[in-house]
Amino acid sequence: MLLALAAARRVLFFGGKGGVGKTTVAAATALAQAGAGRRVLLVSTDPAHNLGHLWAREVGPQIVRLAAGLDGLELDPQATVDAHLAEVGDALRRLMPEHLAGEVDKHMALSRDAPGMHEAALLERIAELVEQGLRDYDLIVFDTAPSGHTARLMALPEMMSAWTEGLLRRQQRSERFGAALRNLGSDEGVGTRIIGGERTGTGEDRDQRIRQLLHRRRHRFEHLREVLTDSARTSFVIVLAAERLPVLETIELHAQLLRAGIAVGGLVVNKRSPADAGAFLAERHVQEEQHMHTLRSALPGLPLQQLPLLAGDVVGAGALQAFAARLS
Ligand SMILES: Nc1ncnc2c1ncn2[C@@H]1O[C@H](COP(=O)(O)OP(=O)(O)OP(=O)(O)O)[C@@H](O)[C@H]1O
Ligand SMILES: [Mg+2]
Which GO terms describe its molecular function (predicted)? Predict the structure, then answer.
């Protein structure tokens, strides 16, 4: 089910509770798709990165080649926040009168650690990667952080669009106000003093540029939203273990994603205990069956793939290739 789902999509997200195997299953799916001849980009959005651990090699914020047809990168949360703030700060400095530039810098320094800043910056970077990835790759696979974080992130494009929209409207109002003020007198007149000295060309120039910037931002978020909510292009796969809490969290995550307009394309139940390898695991297997029953009754009709618990960890390209061969 996973292979057919992936083959028909351009963007895949893998999410779920911590430690269930998101990174492993995401990487194996990406590898299988690259093996089938598609150009694939694998992106980790998890601040506690593990693509590097999984591939047993250095993976960072720059794209590296992981296998034939498969590129990968790990988003660097702090660098993402810094780049995001640099862009917003630049816009604000242009928007504010020159003598307030110091205040803008102070505000930006404080914003670095503000709640929500990581998510906003991460989302901006995801939007950029989706835009670029859809141009340069056939498939983009996102390996995400544990459930709560990702569900909030998925609902964010709408909020960010609304926020930018509000800013645009306010800017249009102040633009009219600024024009009226400028008409009050000469360049040295009261109007110019009130709205501040010009830093970049005329007032109209500046307003125009700010509007362009806001439009570009809004467009970026709208585009991301469009891609995320288009179930023909994008699918979200929830990875879980057949245990009580992962099952409950999966049902909750599914509901949260639904509210955000994002289609869950399938479930991967990883680390299933064998029924025929001793009494201990057989007992676990029986208990897992009960949790599977809860899962299937809560989410009937969702494609589901099960993967066995292996004797060892999955580390390195060879082990991943073998793991990928288990996907169907
Ligand atoms: N089917 C499996 N059998 C045995 N071990 C597995 C299996 N799948 C994954 N693992 C191991 O489980 C551990 C966690 O896997 P992984 O890092 O993919 O989970 P994750 O959901 O991405 O975790 P995190 O929430 O920390 O990002 C790893 O050591 C991995 O090798
Ligand atoms: Mg992971």
Answer: ATP binding; ATP hydrolysis activity; ATPase-coupled arsenite transmembrane transporter activity
| 69 lies in some domain | yes
- Residue 93 within any structural domain of the chain: no
Q: CATH number of the domain at 249, please.
A: 3.40.50.300
- pLDDT of 191 over the 60 cut: no
pLDDT above 70 (res 177): no
Atom of ligand 1 nearest to the CA of 53: 17
Domain that holds residue 318: 2-81+114-160+221-324
Nearest ligand (C-alpha, residue 272): 1
CB 131 within 8 A of CB 124: no
- CA 145 to ligand 1 centroid distance, Å: 13
What are the Cα distances from residue 20, in Å, to 35, 58, 286, 324, 327? 24, 23, 19, 16, 16
Specify the pLDDT at position 33.
98
Nearest to 212 by CA among 179, 250, 168: 168
* Residue 147 Cβ contacting ligand 1 at under 6 Å: no
As a dihedral over the C-alpha atoms of residue 213, residue 73, residue 261, residue 168, rounded to 10 degrees, the angle is -10
For ligand 1, atom 23, name the residue with the nearest CA.
19
The Cα diameter of the chain in Å comes to 90
Nearest atom (ligand 1) to Cα of 19: 23
Q: With a 6 A CB cut-off, is 22 part of the ligand 1 pocket?
A: yes
For the cut 80, the answer to whether the pLDDT of residue 306 exceeds it is yes
Q: Please give the number of the atom of ligand 1 that sits closest to the Cα of 143.
A: 22
Residues surrounding ion ligand 2 at CB below 5 Å: 22-23, 50
The count of structural domains within the chain is: 1
Average pLDDT on 8-33 reads 96
Task: Let me know if residue 212 belongs to a domain.
Answer: no
Could you say which ligand is closest to the alpha carbon of residue 237? 1
Residue 102 resides in a domain:
no
104-113, 134-143, 231-240, 300-309, range with the lowest pLDDT: 104-113
Residue type, 321: Q
